[in-house]
Design goal:
single chain, 397 residues, alpha/beta, Metallo-beta-lactamase, Chain A, Rossmann fold, seven-stranded mixed beta sheet, five-stranded mixed beta sheet, 12 helices, 23 strands, Flavorubredoxin, FMN binding, electron transfer activity, Flavoprotein-like_sf, oxidoreductase activity
Length: 397
């Protein structure tokens, strides 16, 4: 088994799957694995586009050897220096010591800082081109999508855009590597989870990159994670455009923190009343059980967000505090907010959410509802009003 896969007659996929790493960036769960995608262009000058995480180097180098059959790699293009893509550079250099490394000025700063590599460098700037023979590469600088050095490489013959982390997502490639070979519903959810948690903060820079690429004739998108988009590259471009504009779907995500179930009952009551108003997309999430990355993914998806918390040590329940801090960090716009919760002998939960909400700058659909220990009849009536206001706001999306 040679391991490499043809994208075109002379451009190949040599990526690898990682089903052992449990947490990406030591932060995001990889329940369904992840791929590290790398590509080779064979021509008068052979080019390797990005490498893979060091833990998969042995599989990676075997694919390259099988494909090249003794030929050299002339160039390594580095679109992104994050170690899950640059981690094998030193080992690749040992295998191909005459290989030149193509990157931009900021790429080479990171290359030195991470690996101490200062030789065989070929610096490119925005719009520069390199002729390989039958193929030509053109380089587009896309800084802060999502690191300062990120760039994209366009192969002009087959019109393939190698995009680094842009348009990529979580999930291993189990057999199929192309968009027409895989379940796109699964991958689009994992791509949105990747985008919302890792790239989303830099959405204005994503918009800038999309505008720069708007006149480029793109037939295939080849990212460093997730499927290769050969059938409908416009589909993932449209998703990125929507997400980076903070557009949303009609729906409500209700996130709660509850020690003994009383705040949870309020969340369920809200969900039922919102459903009675005709909203079908409703997610109720227990902040104590669900990883932050999945919660942020749902917040990025839906227009309506409801945050509920019990009071804990005169403040916000800790899992809820992590969530509101992260929302503040992302800079997400164009959502509407509802707030609810419980308290005992002192407040602190709801009022802390309200304080964080000032940073969100989202419209609050109605007054917060805070019940003493558990919701009574008057509290339930207020929840009904809150639910209706949320449903109306979401319908007007």
């Amino acid at each position: 088994m040679n391991g490499f896969i043809n994208i075109t007659e002379d451009i190949f996929y040599v990526g690898v799957n990682d089903r052992e790493t449990a947490i990406f960036e030591n932060l995001w769960p990889l329940d369904k694995g992840v791929s590290y995608n790398s590509y080779i262009i064979r021509d008068k000058k052979n080019v390797l586009v990005d490498t893979v995480k060091i833990n998969k180097f042995s599989v990676f180098i075997e694919k390259i050897r099988n494909l090249l059959n003794g030929e050299d790699i002339d160039y390594l293009v580095i679109n992104h220096m994050e170690p899950d893509h640059s981690g094998s550079i030193q080992e690749i250099l040992e295998e191909f010591p005459n290989m030149k490394i193509i990157g931009n000025k900021k790429t080479f700063e990171f290359l030195n800082d991470l690996y101490g590599i200062q030789k065989n460098l070929y610096e490119v700037k925005d719009g520069d081109e390199i002729d390989l023979g039958e193929h030509k590469l053109k380089f587009y600088m896309t800084p802060m999508v999502h690191w300062p050095e990120t760039m994209m490489t366009y192969e002009t013959k087959s019109k393939i855009l190698f995009t680094g982390d842009a348009f990529g997502g979580f999930g291993s490639l189990d057999g199929g590597i192309f968009d027409d070979e895989v379940n796109l519903d699964f991958f689009e959810d994992e791509i949105r989870r990747y985008y919302s948690n890792i790239v989303g903060k830099y959405s204005p820079m994503v918009q800038r990159a999309l505008k720069k690429l708007s006149d480029v004739d793109i037939k295939i998108i080849a990212a460093t994670h997730g499927p290769v988009w050969r059938k409908h590259p416009e589909r993932i471009i449209e998703k990125y455009d929507r997400w980076s504009k903070y557009e949303s779907e009609e729906g409500v995500v209700i996130i709660y923190g509850s020690m003994y179930g009383n705040t949870e009952k309020m969340a369920d009551h809200l969900a039922r009343k919102i459903a009675e108003q005709g909203i079908k997309n409703i997610k109720v999430i227990n902040a104590s059980k669900t990883h932050l990355s999945h919660i942020i993914n749902e917040i990025w998806r839906f227009k309506g967000v409801m945050l509920g918390s019990c009071t804990y040590n005169t403040g916000l329940f800790p899992p809820m505090e992590e969530i509101v801090q992260w929302i503040s960090h992302t800079g997400l716009k164009n959502r509407v907010l509802g707030i609810f919760g419980t308290y005992g002998w002192s407040g602190g939960g709801v009022s802390t959410i309200e304080k964080y909400a000032e940073n969100f700058k989202w419209p609050i659909v109605n007054e917060s509802v805070e019940a003493k220990l558990s919701a009574k009849e008057d509290d339930l009536k207020k929840l009904d009003e809150l639910a209706k206001a949320m449903a109306d706001a979401v319908k007007n999306n």
